[in-house]
Each structure stands twice: as C-alpha cells, then as structure tokens.
Design a protein that fits this description.
Shape: extended
Structural class: alpha+beta
Helix content: 25-40%
Strand order of the largest sheet: 24-32-31-25
Low-confidence stretches: 1-41
Number of helices: 14
C-alpha cells in the first residue's frame, strides 16, 4: 500500500521503491480522451504505463545486482585483497602466485641483502639465504583466499594479507648463538653429589640463552620490514629451585647414609653399608632441570662386590671354544638375581627413614644375554683371519707374561654385528692387581720401565687379525718408533687410558676372538662367516728417511739402552676383494721418528 494525499488506494507498483524513478501523482488531471480516461485493457492509461515502467526498472536493477555479484566473486582471491601492496583480488590462485612472485622479484635486492641482527651487545649480519629466509608464495596465496581467517566484504571491502615467511629454525638458531657468543651462559643444573658419605648440594643457576621459536618470529617480521632486528636474550631457570635442593639434602640424602640398609630374601640377607648407598644414590636432572633421585642398582652391585653372591646366582653367557679346528658351543646358564626395578624402588622408599631400614629382595630368573639359540644365529663357523708375531725372552720374562695376560683377557670374546670392540674397555686398567708386571714402555720418547709393557705387541697382533678380517678400523695409533718385529704402518700401540685400540664389526655375522701362544709367539684369529675373497696389503716406498742420533743417559736401573732405528714415512693400502673385484682400497699412512741410539753412560769426552 502507498499513500497519495489523504486517500489510501491499492496500487500494483513494485514493493521495492526505486528512488531513481519519479512517479506521476494521482492528482494530476487526465488528458483529453474522456472522463473515464481509460485505455484498452482497463484502468487509467497512466497506471498501466507506470506498471510497465516499474517492471523494466526492476529487471535492470536485478541485472545490475547479478552483474556486481559476478564481478565481486570472480577469481579465487576475494576483491580488495593485497599482499605487499600488490592487488591480488579477483585473480585465480595461479595468477595471484605469478603476480606475487613478480613483486618479490622487484624487491629481490632488499630481501637478499644481509640482515642486521643485534643479540645482546653484539651486532652482526645474517645472510637470508644461509638461514632459509624466504616468502612461501603458495602458502601466502592460500592465506589470501581464506576468508575465514581474513574476512572481507567482497563488494566494497579491502584487506591486507601478510606474506607467509619461512625460516630454517635450526640454522637460524645456530647463527644467532654464534653472534651471542660468550654473552650466553649454560644452565647450571641442580645436583647432589657425595664426597664419601657426605652429600654436597649443587645449586641451580639460570641460563642466558635464546628462545629459538621467539627468535624465528622476530627475525621473520624484521626481515620483511627491512629493519635491523633485535633478538631477545632470555633467562631460563631450572625447574628445581635452590630451596628444593636443600629439602632433598635434608629429607633424603643425609638420612640415606646415616645407617646401613638390609636386603633380605629367602636365600639370606645382605647389609648395605652407607658407603655403598652413597655410590648408588643418584640425583639426576633432566633437560628442564628437574632433579629426580634414583637408586642405581648397577652401581650398587659394583659397590657391594661379591656380597650379593650370598643371595644371587649370576647368569653365564653361552660361548664358543675352538676344538679340532672348529668352533664348539660352550653352554650358558640362567641365574637368579634381585629384581633391579623393584629393589631400586623399595630402597628409595626406606632411605629417608631412621628405622625400619629393611627391604625384601625379589629374586627372579635371569637369562644370559647370549643364549645358545642367539649364538647359533650369529654365523660363527670358520676362521676368517689369523695373525702372529714373535716375542723374545720366553714365557718367563715379565714382558712376555704381560702379552699372555692380555691374550687371556680377550680370548673367547664375541663381538656382535654392529658392535665396537675397545681393548681398554675390555681389559680395564692393566695394573699389578690384574696380573700385569713391569716391563719397558715408550714414554717421553724413550724406553722406561712401566706396568703392562709388551701389551702393545698383543695390540698389534689383534689389530692385524681384525685388519685382515676386513673389519672396520675405528681407532689405533702406530708406535712413534719402528720395530722390525711389527709390519710397518699396520701396527698399534696402547696406553691406559689415553690410547686405545678399537674396531667395529661391520658385518652381519658375529666375530669370535681366539688367542693362542707358544714360548715365543702370540697368535690372534678371527672366526665368523667369510664374506671377502681376500684382504691384502700393498706398500708404497719409504720416503723422508732420517738417521738416529746418539743420546747418553744416566746409568741406573731405570736406564734402558737401545740400538736405535731410522725414521721414515710410508703408505700402506688395504685392498679388499669380493667376487673377483676390488670393493675397497683403504690408505694408511704413518711417519716414524728415528729412535735414538740410547747409551747408558756418560758422553765420551
């Protein structure tokens, strides 16, 4: 209904008023043509014309609305969307990506220029390419099309979408830490350590460091802005506080070593003295600095020594011995041992107490680590290498006895696939208590008496056996002087604890080390499954030959005379063949010093 003057009359005009159209008023007089003013079809002519006109305007308006909608919703990127000042609206994803890449190309000089970074008091430049700083075009276009994250009025609105910047966080963190330099400070982790049976607290201190995530966020933003970036240096405090360390000392560490603890079982009982408790009670901090107490049963066993034999029986691994030229299985046996997890838990529960310091040990079946079934899977069936060296003095000399003692320590060792064998780790420190005696060793460039002298000859023999088995050399060091009883270059010395000999079993089969000796030879053989046709050594010529000098020493029991030897440099090549072809050729090089001619006595005048 529409009101005209004072009268309300029905009207068939559209209900949507279009202000652009001016309708003639009904009070205008009709033109000549009769009082009724009617035209064919009924009703006044001007009313029917008005209806026709309204219908035409409505059609035009609807067509305009549809056209504007089509314009507004054209393309994948909404109208009015810009990135880095470039209009991407109305474009397909592919066209938007192309346009954005073109804009980045225009800014390449600035974006690729070194970025000034301030870390603490230090300032340096970082090459964007070195830390992976870049605009991810595809991700940026995807963000531009996402109207949920970035709402926009498609018809009249506008919006700016920030580029998606990526960076290699690990590389950036490494570069920034280098700039940080000595300004940084590692976190001092809380700890409680025992000196004898006295607990000593180590109080935590915060680190002064970088937060990798925060650093990346700041650098990404600053790089786009083209401004120097200040990366925040932050303090990071350990989770465990100084007060909590003091509480653990008072409530656990001190009472733990105040009295013995008794472990009982149906096989008997063992008293654990405070000294053993101090060795076994460990306070470990994780990466966040949270300090947690634990009883290390392995350390407890070591501290108690043979005491646990009263209630435990130790499992024995299956092994191999060589009989009639073939490996023969030596059966292992199961044992019964205290349940380590339960013992650790129960001991930790009673250590804070002054009374009731008794725990009941739970014995359980303990299988050997290497059973006969596992041993059979290792494929140890044939000798793959053997090597011998000669030693003087017979079996009665201290040097010879040291060689044999080392051979006994190693005999029967099985090296699993992928395992690294360490001679020092296997024998431990070679002292008098372990059966080793005084014999000449090279120290400070001359021969002097030392416990374990001669073990280097066993080391050289073992090294060659592993070398000709094709096993991977991990660590060895030839002697500083050349001894003719050893092969040049392919030999090794050893000294506790600094010099070691190691090889890795880089085959899919187990390796058995078998040792044997006579009155003047030591032999080491490797047993496994043969995988190479041959392993041989090819030598290069000796070069840089130098003559020895004569050195006069103070005579006495510590003076050892030596005839001396020339020095030289030489290369040796390990050539490994398989299926008739050379599959590996490894170079070993060494330079020998000339061994002086040591004379025990005064220099002639």
């Amino acid at each position: 209904m529409t009101l005209y003057g004072d009268n309300q009359v029905s009207d068939d005009r559209p209900t949507v008023q279009v202000t652009a159209v001016s309708w003639p008023g009904e009070d205008e007089p009709p033109t000549a043509g009769g009082a009724a003013g009617s035209a064919p079809g009924g009703g006044p002519w001007w009313r029917r014309g008005r209806v026709l006109l309204a219908g035409g305007v409505t059609t035009a308006v609807l067509a305009g609305v549809v056209g504007m909608g089509a314009w507004a919703y054209a393309g994948d990127v909404p109208r009015g969307t810009s990135v880095l000042g470039t209009e991407l609206g109305g474009r397909s994803r592919a066209d938007a990506a192309k346009e954005l890449r073109a804009e980045l190309e225009k800014r390449a000089d600035r974006l690729n220029a070194p970025l000034t970074v301030v870390v603490g008091e230090n300032r340096a430049e970082v090459n964007p390419a070195d830390v992976g700083l870049t605009v991810d075009v595809d991700a940026t276009v995807a963000a531009a099309t996402d109207t949920r994250a970035h709402p926009v009025d498609r018809l009249f609105g506008s919006r700016t979408v920030e580029p998606v910047v990526t960076v290699d966080a690990a590389k950036l963190d490494a570069a920034l830490r280098q700039i940080l330099g000595k300004q940084g400070r590692d976190m001092t982790m809380p700890a409680i350590i025992f000196t004898g049976t006295t607990p000593k607290p180590v109080y935590p201190k915060p680190s002064l460091t970088l937060d990798a995530e925060q650093s990346a966020r700041v650098v990404r933003t600053g790089w786009l802005a083209g401004q120097p970036v200040t990366v925040p240096v932050v303090e990071k405090n350990p989770v465990t506080t100084r007060e909590e360390v003091d509480r653990l000392v008072a409530e656990l560490a001190k009472p733990a070593v105040a009295a013995p603890v008794t472990i009982t079982s149906d096989k008997g009982s063992v008293s654990v003295p405070p000294a053993a408790i101090a060795r076994a009670l460990r306070f470990s901090a994780d990466d966040e600095g949270k300090l947690t107490p634990k009883v290390d049963v392995k350390r407890l066993r070591s501290a108690l020594g043979s005491k646990l034999a009263a209630i435990e029986s130790t499992p024995k691994d299956a092994g191999l011995s060589i009989s009639a030229g073939k490996p023969k299985v030596v059966p292992g046996r199961a044992g019964k041992q205290l349940d380590s997890a339960a013992l650790s838990r129960d001991l930790l529960a009673v250590l804070p107490k002054a009374d009731g310091r008794t725990v009941t040990g739970q014995l359980k079946e303990a299988e050997p680590e290497l059973t006969e079934a596992k041993l059979a899977e290792l494929g140890i069936k044939e000798r793959v290498s053997t090597f011998s060296t000669k030693f003087p003095g017979g079996l009665s000399s201290p040097r010879s006895q040291n060689i044999i003692q080392a051979a006994k320590d190693v005999d029967g060792t099985i090296v699993q696939p992928g395992e690294t064998f360490s001679l020092n780790a296997h024998t431990g420190e070679r002292g008098y208590a372990q059966g080793y005696k005084d014999a000449p060793v090279i120290l400070g460039g001359k021969l002097v008496p030392g416990v374990g002298g001669g073990v280097s000859q066993f080391t050289t023999t073992l090294f060659n056996a592993s070398y000709y088995a094709g096993l991977q050399d991990v660590e060895h060091k030839p002697h500083s002087f050349y001894f003719s009883r050893y092969p040049a270059v392919i030999e090794s010395t050893i000294f506790w604890p600094d010099l070691d000999f190691k090889f890795r079993n880089n085959t899919p089969h187990g390796v058995l080390i078998d040792t044997a000796w006579t009155s003047n030879t030591i032999t080491v053989s490797m047993w496994s499954t043969k995988i190479y046709d041959s392993v041989k050594t090819e030598y290069g010529p000796r070069r840089n030959v130098t003559s020895p000098r004569t050195v006069y020493l103070e005579p006495g029991p510590t003076c050892i005379a030596a005839a001396g030897s020339t020095g030289f440099t030489q290369d040796a090549f390990r050539v490994i063949k398989k299926d008739g072809k050379v599959v590996k050729r490894e170079k070993f090089s060494w330079t020998y010093d000339p061994e002086p001619n040591f004379v025990c006595g005064p220099k002639p005048s």
